[in-house]
Every structure is written in C-alpha cells, then in structure tokens.
Design a protein that fits this description.
The structure holds two protein chains of two kinds. Among the domains of chain A are: about 80 residues, no CATH class; about 475 residues, no CATH class; about 50 residues. Chain A contains 31 helices and two strands. In chain A, helix 21 runs parallel beside helix 23. Chain A is about 75% helix and about 0% strand. By secondary structure, chain A is mostly helical. By secondary structure, chain B is mostly helical. Chain B starts with a helix and ends in a 5-residue tail after the last helix. The chains are: A mainly alpha, B mainly alpha. Chains A and B meet through helix 1, helix 15, helix 16, helix 27 and helix 28 of A and helix 4, helix 5, helix 6, helix 7 and helix 8 of B.
Chain lengths: ~900, ~160
C-alpha cells in the first residue's frame, strides 16, 4: 500500500499522454538495478528440489530480499500498460528492433553482475554465455511472469497495487523475452499473440452480432416482462415455427418452383398449364381467385401445373424426381428438427436440475442485468423481476399446500370423467354428422344448412368445448402450469376429431374423382382421336394441334386436395385475425372507453380485458402446421403462404397482446423446455405424414396433370431414375436393398439399438440421481457441522473475526477474508487446545468426511478448533463431485 | 485510455487533462451515478461505494478503473463473485444478513412486492444458500451459491 501515491502518479503518466517508450539508456540503467527481481522470481519459478542450483538460489533470494527496498524506486520506469494487452503487444512488435539492440547490452550487464557476485558467478560457471539450462529456466520464469500478468485481473487488489505489480512483471518479461527468442521468432510470436487477441475480439463481436440477429428478441422480451414466461413461450414457439417454415420454403421454392418457372414449359403450352375454355372468361375474377380457382389453380403453386417430362431445360433438371425428393425431405427435415429440438430441450432440462437448490438466491443475485443502460429496458426488467419473483412464490406455495388430498383426488377423477364424457359425446356427434353429410351428398337439392352441417357442428364444438373444459378443469385445482398441459391435451383430442372429419371428407372426394378418372380418360382420348381423324379431307397438311384450352381433362384430385388445404389455411388465418380484432381489441377499446359512462366497473367487472389464450393459440399453430405438412406435397406454394401468415401473425399478435390483453391473474412460469408443445407437434407431424404416405404409396396419380402423370404410382419415379440414370449395378444394389429380407432385419436391429440406448440412459440417469443424493447428504452433513461449530465459536471469534476481517478488507488482498478470519480466530482462541495436533492428524482422516461429525458432536464446547480442518476437508470432498 | 476520457467527461471541471499533476482528484457520486451505464442500475450507489476508497461513492480514477476492470467480461468469476458479495452486503459487515436481503429485493422490485412476500423470499434465500445456519450469508456461502448460477457471468458485467 505504500506505493499508492506513486502508482497514482504513474497512472497519470500513463493516461495523461500517449504511452511512449523511455529512451534506451534509462531502460538499460534500470535493467542493471533490476536484475534483482529477476533472480527472485526465478527462484520462485523453479522450486525443484532436485535442481543442483537450489542452494545458490537460496543465496540469491536472501540477497534480493535485502535489495528489495531499493527496488521500489526503480519501478517507475516503464509506462504502465494496464489491460490493453493487445496494444501492448502491438507496441512490443513495433519496438522490437530497438529492443533487439538492447538485448546484447543486457546480456553484458547480466554477465558482469554474475561475475561480480561470487554466488552468481558459480551458478554461471557452466559457461561464459548463457547455457541451455539457464535459458530454459529463464523461459520458465518468463512464463511465470506472464502468468502473473494474465492473472493480474483475478486478484481483488486495488488498481494501484495491481499497477505496480504488473509493471514489475512486465518489465521482467520484456527484458528477458528478448534474450530468449531470436528476432524473427519473437516478431512472429508477437504477431501470433496479436492475432489471437484479434480473433477473440472478433469472436465476441460475432456472438454479439448473432444475438442481435435473433429476430423479435426484443419484442419477446418485452412481452415476457409484462406477461410472464408462459405467454412468451408461445411467441418463442411461433418464432421457432417460422424458422422451420422458412427452411421448408427455401427447399420447395429453390428446388421445385424456381426451376419450373425458369425452365419448364410456359403457361398455355399444354393442357395442364392452361385454363379450360369453359372457365376462361371468369378466371380472373376476384371471387374466383379468392377460391383459388382460375388462374391461380393453373399456376406453379399447385401440383397439377407440373409436367411429367423427365428432364427440363438445358440443365436437364429432373423435375419429377426433384419434386418427389423435396416432398420426402420436407417430412424428413421436419421430423429431424422436431426430434432434435426435443432432445436438446431435455438435455437443457437435466443440466438445469442442479440449480433447483438455489432458485430464490439466483433470482435475487443474478437477475439484474448490469448491462442494462436504457431506462425503458430497466423498467421492463423491474417488472419482469417482480413477475418472476411472484412466479416463484406461486410455485413455492403450490408445493407447500397439502390440504385435503382426498377431496382433490375425488374432484380430479370427477373432472376427468366429465371431460371424457364430453369428448366421447363430441366424437360421436362428429361421426354422426359426417355420416349424415355423406347421405346428403348423394341427395339432390339439399338445403344450405344440410350442406354445411359438418362445418357448423365443428365450429360450434370448437367454440364451446374449450371453455367448458376450462370450467371443469377449475375443479381440479392444479398448478396453472400443469393445468395448461391438461387443457392442451384435451383440446388436442377435440381437434383431432376435426382433423379426422376433414380427412375423411377429403378421402371420399378423392375416391370419387379417381373412379371418374377412367371415364374422362376415355373421353379425352376419344376427343383427340376424333379431332385428328375428322381432318381426313386434307391429310398432306397436318392440322394445327388442338388448342390446349379445349382439351377435355380429368379432375386432377391432387390439385383439388391442395386447393382444399390452401383454402383452409387462409380461412383459418382470417378467422384468427378477426377473432383477435373483435374479441380482444374491440373489447379492450369498449371496456376502456365505455368505462367512464357505464353503470358498473367494466374493467374489474364482467367483460374486463381478455387474457391471452395460450392453449388455443398453441394448438391453432400446431394444427395449422399439420395442414401445411399435409398440403405442401400437393400445393408447393402453401409453405410460402404459411411463411407470410406466420410473419404477419407474429407482428399482429405481438401488437394485440401488448395493446389489448391483460396478464393472467396467476402469473406462472412456463417450463423452460417446452417439450410439451414439441411432443404435440411431433404427434401432429406423424398424423399428417400418414395420409400423405398413403396417397403416395397406394393411390394412382392423375393421368393428365402433375409431375407423376402417366405412372402407375408416384414412387415409380425413383425406380425410373435408378434405371435410366444410374449405372446398372447401382440399380441392382437398390433392388437388393429394397428386398424385405433385408428390411426386416434392419428394423429389428434398430429396435435393438433403441432398447440398448434406452437402458443405458436409464442407468446413467439413475447414477446421476444417486450422485445428486450423495451431494445433498454431504451438504446436510456440512450444514449440521457448521451449525455445531457456529454455536461454539460464535461468541469467541466474533471480536477477532471482526478485527481480522477488517484488516483483510483493508489490505484488499484476501478474497477469502472470511476463511482467513476463521483461521485467525482459531489461532487466537485455542493455543492451549490440541489444535496443532488435530491439524496434523486430521488431514490423514479427512478421507472420511462423513464419519467425522459423529465423533465431534458429543463435545460441542471443545469442538471449535478441532472442526475447522475437518470441515474444510469435508467441504473439499463435497465440492469435488460437481466439478 | 478510453476509460480515462470517460472519467474526465463526467467532470470536466474537476479533472484536468494532465492527470499527472494532481492525482488525488475525486469525482463525486452524483456524477458517477449519472453515467448511462449506471444510471438505471438499482445498485449503482452500492457499486460506487464498494469501489470507492472510503465507501462514500466518490471515486478517483484508479477506483474508476478498478470498477470497470471488475465489471468487464474478461474478469474471472471468482473476482466477480467477491465484488458481487460486497455490493450486496449493504451494511459492510462482511455478511449478507436479512436486512441486506430485504434491501436487495426491494431495490430489484422497486418495492412492488408486499412485506410478507419480501420476507418470504428472504427466508427462502437464507434457507437455500446459508451453509452454516447462522442466519446470514458469509462470503463462502455466497461464492458457493453464485458460482453455480448459470447466468451470473452473463449478467454481472458492464460493457463500456
């Protein structure tokens, strides 16, 4: 501490003007005087007992101790380079030529010095110049000093002390580093250091950039701070979904739509790319386009537009093959990404488990983000911290509540019974209605209601069942987070019914069209045949081919299915937006402005503001995604529409939530790993994979539209490619692989692998749990230990501890001032007891940390000094497992 | 260097350009606390006090540099934990006691929690982190706890 004013002066020196190197002569003089610290550090740096120079080292150290006081004046030589190591190395680099000149002089000085002092001379007697050994030692020392420089930050010293120490070390390093490396190597070294620094900085900047690039992060944080993490989890899910759809969109757009538009036959060249004559005049009307008929139907957005040419364009792009592969890879990618994110979520969940012990402490001490430098963000942060505290309190109270378990259980069983009844009833209703509608579809002149009965019933069910479920769920009295999951599961079951009817209706339609197809095919042939044959009167001049719009064509069930999905998506989107606009925004406006002239309090009373409906929104999103997955094979443009939809709904819902919703009454924390959503998504993905796989595998494609027309099945395109484009032996290999004799063992092998991995993971998790238990037990032991000790020594060590800790903080050198104070207290307290004996004895027995407390507890009065070493040892062993 | 100019900007009338001549200039807390990096921090007073020499929040350039070196993201976590402990130790008795905890919660939530909630939270914290059951957190307890916190390092720093 005595150097402080000096350090300050130097600090000023450093910062006041641009740091410049002192002239060489002075540095040289300093070197002479400062040979000392070098020796000292060197002695510290190589404390190998086997080294022959040990004795001399001792000598030297002694000598240096004496010279130390003088050296303090020599410290103010080099400019302080505190933390700008990057700059420092740059300067070093720049200065290196100068320094190289200095080096020989330094060496001379050193030699001289060594000759002068007998002990040093003997040490250097190995040779006139520096021997290898010595070089190695100096190198070690330099490393040591460098380590000191790099670890300087780690020490809780005040700046002045750091500065002096740092200067000393740097000076040393600078002096001897030159002696070690050759000029070129040194420069290279400095250069490399510089590059590493630059690289680290670049990486950091890049990371910052990456976090900035996460879209909507601020919006979501904003929402999270106002509405809690459960609402934010919906938006995070929405964002994730957007990312997935963007990838799918890129895949489909890049590999199917763009090649078709660029290289395929233009519009109007062949029948499938032309609007039929009958529809032509209305094909541009908005009402037709709105139904995705007319020109939109005959565009690259739908399956029917694609031609069955094997290759298109000058690139000989195999479009049908690409179409099929993209269709398959859309599912492959989605499956992979869903499963991968589920896996990473579970991984995050397990590592998070350890922190459960300190929920409140972490919240208290690490929740404030010191980076916040914006008052608005700070406001949000305050709100969010308060919310998170409330969440935790709710959790805590939930876990503490243990009242009347029987009643709760009974109510829950009752609620589940009621809900199962509801689900069965609605299932039957749907079934009944679908049956009826099939009858109606055969009859002529049915009324409007009878035609739309299915849709009406479905939307009524969708409107009334979720609130009903919610009311019933209130009986159960679950924690809101679990309640949300139940609610989601129940509505999911309801929606499945919706999906089922939709698919059933669609399948019927498809089968109808397929049965008509044969007829139309004949008609087409016949028409063409007639057309060409009727021109018999002038056979030398071939008649112009029939205009594509006039060719009769089949119904193209694939396009019909695609249109159905697109319509559904768009209408779903519109319904969602209108619901938000009317149900949330207008209601909020009404409540807000009519409250002044109303007979009761609207904000607190009946209508009040809407809460954000998490379960409904999540399920809507998931089912919508199911539609996309199912429809994207038949309507490649559907994913593009969905990307737009998600983008708009992100902004729209963010705005709606912030403007017109209120937070839930019980704010609760979403489970960090939203694996529940992912599980639902996976289920929906699987369910939507089934019908698509069914149509690909077992329905014949239409004869006159789509990339697979003319083939018996859609997957024939693979066979065709293999046969025509690959060498024959590859074809054989494929045929061999497709053999069931090979597939079944492969599946068996996979099952075995799954079983094996599953059992391994179970074992590991069990071991993990056991370890955790052990740690817990150790902590308990430690606690009881400490409490025993604390009671015993509290009164004795209080005064000494205070004094010593004050000392420690004043000196500012001891990070473990508390532990130091304890040891001090121990020394002050028990000179008469067997503290020294126990000190030597306990390390031997410290490998039995658990057996200690049993021996100690009987004599708590005496235990004070004795427990210290044992406790520290046990803590060490307790801390070892987590590291 | 940058820091020095920042420091000087805080109080141009107090800090001369040539710092060598009068090294003992102090910048009062009122000016330190208005730095954009600190002005929204609920613990700014504590930070200034911890890093200032005599605990009054007035800082010399050295203290100032100290503060930002500890708060920089390169500082090791042990060091950060040590200073974090000092920051949360409101009454400077080297223990975080109930009163300190209450202060912390109140500052963090701007007093929006009710008294029972605050005391509940404080009790929970003591229950979780107090290793020796003496009703207060020692530095050891604190380090033990904070070094396991996943986002301590990411939140406990100030970028300048």
């Amino acid at each position: 501490m005595s150097h402080r004013p000096q350090g300050l002066g130097e600090e000023g020196d450093r910062s006041g003007r641009r740091p410049s190197r002192k002239p060489a002569p002075k540095a040289e003089g300093v070197t002479g005087r400062c040979g000392g610290p070098a020796g000292q550090e060197w002695a510290k740096g190589s404390p190998r007992p086997d080294s022959p120079q040990r004795k001399q080292v001792e000598h030297k150290r002694h000598r240096e101790e004496l010279g130390k006081q003088k050296r303090s004046t020599a410290r103010r030589t080099r400019e302080g380079r505190k933390k700008k190591n990057g700059k420092a190395s740059l300067k070093e680099q720049r200065a290196s030529p100068k320094k190289e000149k200095e080096v020989p002089k330094k060496e001379m000085w050193k030699q001289l010095k060594k000759r002068r002092s007998p002990s040093l001379a003997s040490s250097a007697s190995a040779g006139e110049s520096l021997s290898e050994e010595e070089l190695a030692r100096i190198l070690e020392q330099v490393e040591e000093k460098k380590k000191l420089i790099t670890h300087m930050r780690n020490k809780p010293w005040p700046m002045a002390k750091k500065l002096t120490e740092l200067r000393e070390a740097q000076e040393f390093v600078e002096k001897y580093e030159g002696a070690l490396g050759k000029g070129k190597g040194k420069r290279l070294y400095a250069y490399r250091m510089l590059m590493t620094k630059k690289w680290i900085k670049f990486k950091r900047d890049f990371d910052n950039f990456k976090t900035q690039c996460i879209p909507w992060e601020m919006k979501i944080k904003d929402i999270e701070s106002h509405f809690g993490s459960s609402v934010a989890s919906y938006f995070i899910f929405l964002r994730w979904m957007y990312g997935v759809n963007l990838v799918l969109f890129g895949l489909i757009f890049g590999l199917v739509i763009i090649p078709e538009v660029l290289m395929g036959m233009p519009y109007g060249s062949i029948p499938r790319k032309t609007v039929p004559r009958a529809e032509e005049e209305r094909a541009m009307d908005f009402s037709v386009l709105w139904d995705f008929e007319g020109y939109i139907k005959y565009s690259a957005l739908f399956y029917g537009y694609y031609n069955d040419q094997r290759t298109i364009g000058w690139l000989r792009y195999r479009l049908p093959m690409a179409y099929f592969m993209v269709g398959v890879s859309v599912f492959g990618y989605s499956l992979m990404i869903v499963i991968r994110s589920m896996a990473s979520n579970t991984q995050g969940g397990t590592s998070e488990g350890e922190g459960d012990n300190f929920t409140f402490s972490f919240k208290m001490f690490t929740s404030w983000d010191y980076l916040i430098g914006n008052s608005e963000t700070a406001d949000n942060k305050y709100v969010s911290i308060t919310t998170s505290f409330k969440e935790s309190i709710v959790d805590e109270q939930e876990s503490n509540k243990e009242e009347n378990i029987h009643l709760t259980r009974f109510l829950r069983v009752l609620a589940n019974f009621l809900i199962i009844c509801c689900l069965c009833g609605s299932g039957y209703l749907i079934y009944f209605v679908v049956k009826r509608s099939q009858e109606f579809s055969k009859m002529q002149n049915v009324s409007w209601y009878e035609r739309n009965e299915v849709e009406i019933v479905m939307s009524l069910l969708g409107m009334f069942c979720p609130p009903l479920f919610e009311t019933i769920a209130a009986l159960e009295n679950y924690h809101p987070r679990i309640g949300l999951k139940w609610q989601l599961g129940r509505i999911f079951a309801l929606f499945l019914g919706n999906l089922y009817t939709f698919l059933l209706a669609l399948m019927d339609d498809v089968h109808l069209k397929l049965s008509n197809e044969e007829k139309i095919k004949n008609i087409t042939h016949w028409t063409l045949f007639n057309y060409y044959n009727s021109s018999g009167w002038n056979e030398s001049v071939p008649r112009p081919p029939l205009h594509p719009a006039d060719v009769p064509r089949g119904s193209c069930w694939e396009t019909a299915v695609g249109i159905e999905f697109v319509r559904l998506t768009v209408s779903d989107m519109l319904v969602t937006y209108i619901t938000i606009l009317v149900g949330d925004f207008l209601r909020a406006c009404f409540v807000r402005f009519m409250n002044y002239c109303w007979c009761w309090d609207l904000e607190a009373g009946f209508p009040s503001y809407a809460e954000f409906d998490i379960s409904g929104n999540v399920l809507g999103l998931i089912f919508n995604q199911g539609m996309i997955w199912m429809g994207s094979f038949y309507a490649p443009g559907l994913v593009g529409i969905n990307v737009l939809r998600l983008l708009t709904s992100m902004y729209f819902q963010c705005w709606a939530v912030m403007s017109s919703n209120v937070p839930h009454e019980r704010v609760f924390k979403a489970s960090r790993s939203n694996n529940f959503y992912m599980g639902l998504l996976l289920l929906v993905l699987f369910l939507s994979l089934l019908p698509v796989a069914y149509t690909i595998m077992s329905l014949p494609p239409s004869f006159d539209c789509g990339p697979f027309s003319g083939k018996n099945r859609m997957y024939d395109v693979i066979q065709e490619t293999v046969e025509n484009d690959f060498p024959t032996f590859l074809g054989k290999i494929f045929a061999f692989i497709a053999n069931p004799g090979l597939i079944i063992p492969a599946i068996l092998l996979m099952f075995l692998a799954i079983y094996y991995l599953n059992s391994v993971s179970k074992t590991l998790s069990r071991a993990n749990a056991q370890l955790r238990k052990k740690i817990q037990a150790l902590r308990e032991v430690e606690k009881s230990h400490k409490s025993v000790k604390g009671r015993a020594t509290a009164r004795d060590s209080e005064d000494t501890a205070k004094g010593s800790s004050k000392n420690a903080t004043k000196a500012g050198t001891m990070p473990h001032s508390a532990s130091q104070s304890q040891t001090l207290g121990k020394k002050a307290q028990g000179p008469g007891t067997s503290s020294s004996a126990s000190g030597t004895m306990l390390p031997a027995s410290s490998h039995l940390p658990i057996s200690r407390p049993a021996g100690i507890r009987p004599d708590p009065g005496h235990a004070g000094p004795q427990t210290h070493p044992g406790r520290s040892a046990s803590r060490k062993s307790a801390q070892r497992p987590p590291h | 260097m940058e820091l020095f100019y920042r420091y000087q900007d805080l109080a141009p009338q107090l800090v001369p350009l040539d710092y060598t001549s009068c090294p003992d200039v102090k910048v009062p807390y009122e000016l330190i606390g208005t730095m954009p990096e600190l002005k929204d921090n609920p613990f700014r007073l504590r930070i200034a006090q911890v890093f200032s020499e005599d605990g009054d929040g007035h800082m010399t350039l050295n203290n100032f540099l100290d503060m930002f070196s500890v708060m920089s993201e390169m500082a090791p976590r042990d060091l950060k934990a040590y200073y974090a402990f000092k920051i949360y130790d409101f009454n400077n008795d080297d223990y975080i006691c109930m009163w300190d905890l209450e202060q912390t919660v109140t500052k963090l939530t701007r007093g929006e929690l009710s008294a029972e909630e605050v005391s509940l939270v404080c009790e929970k914290v003591l229950d979780e982190a107090d290793g020796d059951h003496d009703g207060r957190l020692s530095l050891e307890d604190f380090q033990n706890m904070i070094l396991r916190a996943p986002d301590f390092l990411s939140t406990f720093h100030i970028r300048i």
